[in-house]
Amino acid sequence: MENLKVLKTESNFKTTIKIKDVTIGDGSFVLIAGPCSIEDYDSLDKIGSLISKNGGKILRGGAFKLRTSPYSFQGLGTKALIDLYKIGQKYNLVTISELTDLSHLEDYLKYVDIIQVGARNMNNYEMLKKLGKIRKPILLKRGPDATIYEWLYAAEYLLSAGNKEVILCERGIRTFETYTRNTLDISAVLAVKKLSHLPIFVDPSHGTGRSEMVVPLVMASKVVGADGAMIEIAEIPEKALSDGKQAINFDEYEEMVKKL
Ligand code: PEP
Ligand code: MN
């Protein structure tokens, strides 16, 4: 490999990212939680309140959703981003949402603290080049068919264009297995830690598609040295408009925070 900016150097420098009063990559384990899709202000308010009451710092929520079927709920768009912004302000939470198209970038610059590049856009290199030029942290998910080096090269697009605030996120890869939605590659945490100075998160919600696996795999992520985890929560998971099967409920969330 060339002399890539994404790779660790002998100095053992580690990227740490400070957003408001949250630091990522300093050895602490940071939770990102929230709904798959923002459904309305009030339900997001309840989730924001739950997170802040339990010492959480980062709220996620989808606004523009990339759904397999065009008939599935597509997200509430900019209105959802504005709700996310308001709830973030109300509970002093850092916010994150997935950017699916560069035409929405202006709204993301206004309303969210961290921009997520989803698995489906990991190799959207034009998007990465543009996001490399902005001054906001990027959470870059691993593509479902990306090798670790392909994923690191995607991060290199951001770094080489000037954005040093990059967080990687393992979210499962596609294998022959169908019991789980994806195959969560926990070993990727160890590989990334060995190869790169960037912080790495794990998303066991999309990684497995099964709520009962979420909490144990958050714990596993912490054990292998991840910098944090991103999970989906819902007040009544069965009623969520997207990804209810992989969301944990409020009680499970509180239990998990205590265990961590
Ligand atoms: C998400 O986090 O909302 C999401 C769609 O995840 P992924 O890109 O990993 O599928
Ligand atoms: Mn989801």
Explained architecture:
The chain is α/β, with parallel strands linked by helices and 260 residues long. It is built from 9 helices and 10 strands. An 8-stranded parallel beta barrel has the order 3-4-5-6-7-8-9-10, surrounded by 6 helices. Strands 1-2 form a two-stranded antiparallel sheet. Helix 1 packs parallel to helix 2 (78-91) and helix 4 (125-131) packs across helix 5. It is globular and about 50 Å long. The protein starts with 16 loop residues before the first strand and ends with a helix. The structure holds phosphoenolpyruvate and manganese (II) ion. Phosphoenolpyruvate binds next to loops.
Descriptive labels:
single chain; 260 residues; alpha/beta; two-stranded antiparallel sheet; 9 helices; binds phosphoenolpyruvate; binds manganese (II) ion
Q: Would you tell me the overall average pLDDT?
A: 97
Report helical residue fraction. 25-40%
Strand-and-helix sequence, N→C?
A: EEEHEHEHEHEHEHEHHEH
Distance between the termini: 37 Å
Number of E strands: 10
Beta-strand percentage?
15-25%
Major sheet strand order: 3-4-5-6-7-8-9-10
Shape: globular
Quaternary organisation: single chain
Rounded Rg: 17 Å
Q: In this structure, how is the largest beta sheet organized? A: 8 strands, parallel, barrel
Pairing-aware structural class of the strands and helices?
Answer: alpha/beta
Q: What hetero molecules are bound to the protein chains? A: phosphoenolpyruvate, manganese (II) ion
> What's the helix count?
9
Poorly predicted regions: none
